[in-house]
């Protein structure tokens, strides 16, 4: 997947299955023309749990999620709807189960850093744009650094098949940041999942992220 005017930092969790609980996938991606900071960020993991989280402290960078399970990085193929997407990589035999039944909320956290090189000379704002695409079957709340940025609580059975696209640049800090998501299936007990992708749009030489596709779910 080549790019000519921008590099893409894709931090994605793919947990979308047609039937049964969600399994977290271990993905080995190939990287080219990305900075060391971007590659390191790509290798980091999400933390997930089913244990009930009261309040919003779990959405901040100060929260200790050391006892949560981990979800390895995945990436999704652009140009396909969420219902017909596929994961990139290979299944992990040691993957964790994160949703067990309808009505159980799954909590996701993803810590990452943004280098000072992304800030303008006056240190007043991040120069690039951080675009998030997210969907869940079927309700979710999305936080950035403890701030509720977006939520989808519709009961439309087909609503999850389209992405919500959000520019989260204004909520980010130089240094430590955290994405946090609470997702719950309130409808079909056998069809649920979360699809998340973040794109850091930067200038300069292009790069690509690619790996052989393996069908993991969808309809």
UniProtKB/TrEMBL annotation:
SUPFAM superfamilies: Galactose-binding domain-like. This is Glycosyl hydrolases family 2 sugar binding domain-containing protein. InterPro entries: Galactose-bd-like_sf (IPR008979). It comes from the Bacteria.
């Amino acid at each position: 997947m080549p790019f000519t005017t921008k590099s893409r930092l894709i931090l994605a969790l793919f947990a979308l299955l047609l039937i049964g609980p969600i399994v977290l996938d271990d993905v080995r991606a190939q990287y080219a023309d990305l900075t060391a900071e971007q590659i390191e960020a790509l290798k980091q993991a999400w933390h997930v749990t089913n244990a009930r989280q009261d309040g919003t402290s779990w959405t901040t960078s100060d929260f200790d999620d050391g006892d949560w399970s981990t979800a390895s990085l995945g990436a999704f193929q652009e140009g396909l709807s969420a219902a017909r997407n596929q994961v990139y990589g290979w299944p992990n035999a040691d993957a964790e189960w994160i949703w067990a039944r309808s009505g159980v909320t799954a909590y996701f956290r993803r810590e990452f850093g943004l280098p000072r090189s992304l800030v303008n000379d006056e240190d007043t704002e991040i120069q690039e744009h951080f675009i998030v695409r997210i969907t869940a079957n079927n309700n979710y709340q999305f936080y950035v650094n403890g701030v509720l940025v977006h939520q989808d609580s519709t009961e439309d059975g087909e609503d999850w098949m389209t992405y919500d696209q959000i520019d989260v640049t204004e909520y980010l800090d130089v240094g430590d940041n955290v994405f946090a998501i609470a997702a719950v299936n309130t409808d079909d007990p056998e069809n649920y999942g979360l699809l998340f992708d973040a794109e850091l749009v930067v200038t300069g030489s292009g790069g690509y992220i690619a790996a052989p596709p393996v069908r993991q779910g969808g309809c």
